[in-house]
Each structure stands twice: as C-alpha cells, then as structure tokens.
Design brief:
Residues 7-314 form the FAD-binding domain. This protein has 379 residues and is an alpha/beta fold. It has 12 helices and 17 strands. Strands 3, 4, 5, 10, 11, 12, 13, 14 and 15 form a 9-stranded mixed β-sheet that branches. Strands 1, 2, 6, 7, 8, 9, 16 and 17 form an 8-stranded mixed β-sheet that branches.
Length: 379
C-alpha cells in the first residue's frame, strides 16, 4: 500500500487536547493530520466544567466564548453521604459547556485552519523508525515526523504498547466507572456541587441552554453489588445522600440511556511512550472532583506544541523535545495530580468525608487553599 503524503504532525484522538494541538500546529504552518474514531458532534463522559485558567487560551484558538452566554461558575458545594455540607467560593471559577458543543466548534476551527481531520478513523498501531512514524489505521496508512497521543483515558494503543498503568492489578486507583446524564432541573447557575455517596461522588453544574451535566464516578464493585444495574445502584447507593435523592427524583433526563465508561485508572502514566508525546488524559488523569481535567488537557497541548515547534524548527533534537516536555508536564501538573489523589481518598468514604467537612467548615480560607492546589494559573 502506498504511503499518503508525509505530515509534520499526526495526532491520535480529537478531544480537547488533540484539537487544540492541531489548531496550534496548522496555524504555525505545519502539515497536520488528526485521527478521530467518532464523528463530530458526539457526547462524551465528562464533567463539562472548565476552569477560567483556560478562557484566554480558548479565545485565542478562535472560540468566541464572550459571545456564547455560558454559565460562569464561582461557588462550590460539597456534601457528604448523610447530608452534611460545606459551601465555598471558587478562587478562580470556571464556566460550563458540553463536550458535544466545544469539541464540534474546535473541530470546525481545525478544518478552517487546514488540518486534515479524519473522522471515523481508528489508529491500530504507531511504529517509530528512521526518525519518523508510520501510522496504521482502518482506512490506510500515513507517515509523520512527530506524533501526539490524545486518545483519552485508555485506548487500544495503551494495551498494544503494554503501558505500565494497564498492567497494574485492579486496585483503589484503577477500577472506576463513570456515568453521565444531561438533565433539566432547578439548580443555581453559578454553583458546581459535588455530592458524595459510598465509594463515589457525583457532580452537577450548568452547561449551555440551561441544561445541566450530571456526572458521577464510582467503583466497579459498587455496580457489581447492584447486579450491574445502573438504576438500582442510583436508588440503593447514590440516593442515600438527600441532595442526590432530590436531584434524581425531580430531574428531567435528556438522554434515553446514560453515557458510561469503565476501567478508568488514576495510576501514574508516562508522558512519552515509544517517542509519542502524550497529552490530555492520555498523559495523566486528575481526579474528577478537582474539576480540572479539561483545563489540563488544553494546557498540555500548549506545552507539547512549544516543544514540538522547537524540534521541527531544528532548535532541539527529538530526545531534548521528549525530556523537556516531560519536565514541563511534571512542573505544571505533577503536584496537582498528587493533591487530587489525596483528596480523592477522602471522598467516597462516608466516615472520612464527614470528618474532612467538619474539620474544614470553620476555615473558609483553608478550603480555598485546598481548591487552589488542584488548579493552575491562566496560561
């Protein structure tokens, strides 16, 4: 099979990180191809809250955020399974927008910028040789000088490459499932709420068109306990929290079925694998209760682009690109991920979450400090 034209940059996966990198690359004049398994627009399991640290970056990419009348979210409510709660202002705040909308808008910008955007295309292998890459897909092969992996939390390439986190036996950090709904309900537009239940927590916040994203994370064991039936689990476990009981009883569900993903791992990942630079969730996953995975995905695309650009300009070699990207990633996100893992260990345990809420309730400044540990500064 003859190889298609050689690209400067190939990106595997078209979520926030992949699309943001594609736009930056094409704008800089690089021949860029992006492979996406799905067809835009499509729904994704995601909390759909973006920290304001990303606002300027997204506007620079071409998203007219200021004109979109999106809900600005600047308060946080955390509840425990038995209904204890704490409320806090969010030091920086964020805004709500669905992945269905933002991914489609970014995909449109990428096409306008000249990115070759190949939808419904699955990358089955990436092989590095002679200082470039061969990419094998279900629709033919391509060749590129630099490849970035932006295919999300867990992909077929992770298994193929035997990435370390895929080989870890099921444990507290790697055996999660996530469930998402879009709903209509009565809930303040400026408030994001995190409701704890046994072995999990559920977030709710407003997105566009007065809809709400309702998304929860729990253990696979919780679902097994309820005969693998999601609605039984919601009734028997989630709705023990009076706040969740109220939401699930009164909400108008906008999906026929919830969206779900399984085998989510918060184990540490490498940022470079087989010379492929990993960005977004592919490089490392922050606990969703930190509400900051989308901003991290966007920021990681910027960090990766800076190193890729230096490499393609001939200012650094491939080894330096890989080392410097890893160092930058660690510098900006390493502490955040640690803080996220630590906080996650308090949530989902009725006893620990109650203790934490009682301890910090009298100290609003400390609550703000904890939130800041999981967020970055505008980039």
């Amino acid at each position: 099979m003859s190889l298609q034209p050689k690209y400067d940059i190939a990106i595997v996966g078209g979520g926030l990180a992949g699309l943001a990198l594609a736009i930056q690359s094409a704008r800089a004049g690089y021949k860029t191809v992006l492979f996406e398994r799905e067809k835009y627009p499509f729904h994704k399991v995601c909390g759909e809250y973006i920290s304001l640290e990303s606002w300027n970056f997204l506007q620079d990419l071409g998203l007219p955020l200021s004109d979109m009348q999106l809900p600005i979210i600047n308060r946080l409510l955390i509840t425990t399974p038995n209904g204890n709660y704490i409320e806090s202002t969010l030091p920086l705040g964020g805004f709500g927008i669905s992945r269905y909308s933002i991914d489609k808008l970014l995909a449109d910008i990428a096409r306008q910028e000249g990115v070759t955007l190949l939808e419904e295309t699955k990358v089955v292998n990436v092989v590095y040789r002679n200082n470039s890459f061969l990419l094998f897909t279900n629709k033919g092969d391509s060749e590129a000088t630099v490849v970035a992996g932006a295919y999300g939390k867990r992909g077929n390439l992770d298994i193929k490459w035997k990435r370390q986190f895929t080989k870890v036996k099921p444990n507290k950090l790697n055996h999660y499932i996530a469930v998402k709904y879009h709903i209509r309900t009565h809930h303040p537009a400026d408030l994001i709420a995190l409701h704890n239940f046994e072995n999990g927590y559920c977030g709710i916040s407003q997105i566009e068109e007065n809809k709400y994203c309702l998304c929860y994370l729990t253990t696979a064991a919780n679902l097994r306990k309820c005969r693998n039936d999601i609605s039984s689990m919601e009734k028997d476990i989630l709705m023990k929290n009076p706040f969740l009981e109220k939401i699930f009883s009164n909400a108008e569900m906008l999906y026929e079925e919830p969206l779900t993903i399984s085998r989510i791992s918060f184990n540490k990942k490498t940022q470079v694998e087989n010379h492929v630079l990993m960005i977004g969730d592919t490089a490392g996953l922050i606990a969703p209760l930190c509400g900051n995975g989308m901003s991290m995905a966007l920021h990681s695309s910027k960090l990766a682009f800076e190193e890729i650009n230096s490499f393609l300009q001939g200012r650094i070699n491939r080894y330096e690109m890989e080392i410097q990207y890893t160092e930058q990633w660690e510098k900006f996100f390493g502490r955040r991920l640690q803080a996220g893992r630590l906080l996650q260990s308090f949530f989902g345990s009725p006893i620990l979450s109650n203790v934490l809420i009682k301890l910090v309730k009298p100290f609003p400044k400390f609550v703000a400090f904890l939130i800041r540990q999981t967020h970055g500064k505008p980039f």
